[in-house]
Amino acid sequence: MTGLEIGIISVGAIIVLVYSGLHIAIALSLVSFLSVLYQSGSTSLAINLLTLAATDGIANQTFAVIPLFVMMGLLMNATGVGRDAFDVGDFVLHRLRGGLGLATVASNAVFAAVTGVSIASAAVFTRVAVPEMLRLGYSPRFAVGTVAGSSVLGMLIPPSVLLIVYAIITDQSIGRMFFAGIGPGIILSTVYCLGILAMAYFIPSMVFDPTRKFADEAAMGADRFEGVTWGQIALKLLPIGFLIFVVLGGIYGGVFTPTEAGAVGALFATLYAVLRGKLTLALFVQTLRETGYITAAVCFLIIAATMYSRSLAFAGVPSEIGRFAQTLTQNYLVILFIFVLIVLVLGTIIDAISIMLIVVPLFLPIMLQFGVDPIWFGIITTIAVEVGLLTPPLGMACFVIKSSLTNKEITLEDVFIGALPFAAMMLFVIGLLVRWPHLIYIDQWFG
């Protein structure tokens, strides 16, 4: 059996196992073991190879960045920064038609810079933004769709757990991945806002509830913000801005390594939670427990992905697939199109990190043979993978929104339909980044 055949069979086996209900890490490990066992015919060799993969997989202090940023995000979430960010966005943008949708996108972008987890954004803004939009006459589908679409910014704007995972499994710089995520994050946020404005002014039935009198006019008035000053709004944004400046500014300025920045961010988040009176002993213990759960799950997945990558290398799968791809075409865009298509299909049944762990080891070696920048490829992969959070039947962000809704009249179908325009906008941004690759680096925007 050739390496190409082994690669195709392994991916198919993993998908079947995962779709049958087996945990993705177990599926990756099992397929890797059986693959090496088939090729070598030696049980001891298969066990030793995979044991080394498990040992080497997370034997690096770089992995400390995961629990630190996760803890920082959980603590900042507990302090109510999501509510504060939404209040600031609402105050600044409420005079525009569709202003609450714009405020949701803007506040989600800010919230993403202190959490890095899309699911957390989806849960927070479902409770914060959706009730307010429904009260002011917005369509239920638009309300939940805006939250679903903007929640994916949490996995693109640094510090992002997905960018960290990609950097680790591809041996890239976490700092460079973070820097590369800023530009596309701004672009995606801008495209979302332009899309909302276009819908609000040209297709108002997509934004506002046609069964109610257009209530957004009330949102344009000053009644909701009577007595609120710019100083009060600035105070709400100050802690978030300071944390972003310290953590990301420290990384890009060379003051901290990403791991050190995670530690500083976690310390600041703890102190801020204490000062706001939000951190009880029970909540702190719960935060530590959740941090441990998330970290263990991510590290287990990375160990399994390391096993999978080594089993593929043992079979010569990357080079075999690379040669096959080059016989098909000399245009890397064709391979990239196939890659994105596969990711979108997998996104309907598998979660974001799992998709990345399965497909990146197969396609990155091919893209490197075409001279593709692995950092750029990582951003394209991240956005494509995140589309899966919005597509049925899995659509994790949509499920989180549905479970967090207080209005039970809004169905899961409404959430998925509302998220479709935002999924389309994400694909548009992928097209922009493919056409102009330099857009991932904000220092090249005007160069």
From TrEMBL:
Entry keyword set: Cell inner membrane, Cell membrane, Membrane, Transmembrane, Transmembrane helix, Transport
Pfam families found in the cross-reference section: DctM
Start and end residues of each TRAP C4-dicarboxylate transport system permease DctM subunit domain: 12-433
Any one GO cellular component localisation term in the record: plasma membrane
Molecular-function GO terms, alphabetical: transmembrane transporter activity
Transmembrane intervals: 6-37, 58-80, 100-130, 142-169, 181-203, 233-255, 261-285, 292-312, 332-363, 375-395, 415-434
Bilayer topology term: Multi-pass membrane protein
Main location: membrane
Subcellular location: Cell inner membrane
Family (UniProt): Belongs to the TRAP transporter large permease family.
Task of the protein: Part of the tripartite ATP-independent periplasmic (TRAP) transport system.
Subunit structure: The complex comprises the extracytoplasmic solute receptor protein and the two transmembrane proteins.
Official protein name in the record: TRAP transporter large permease protein
Organism expressing this protein natively: Halovulum dunhuangense
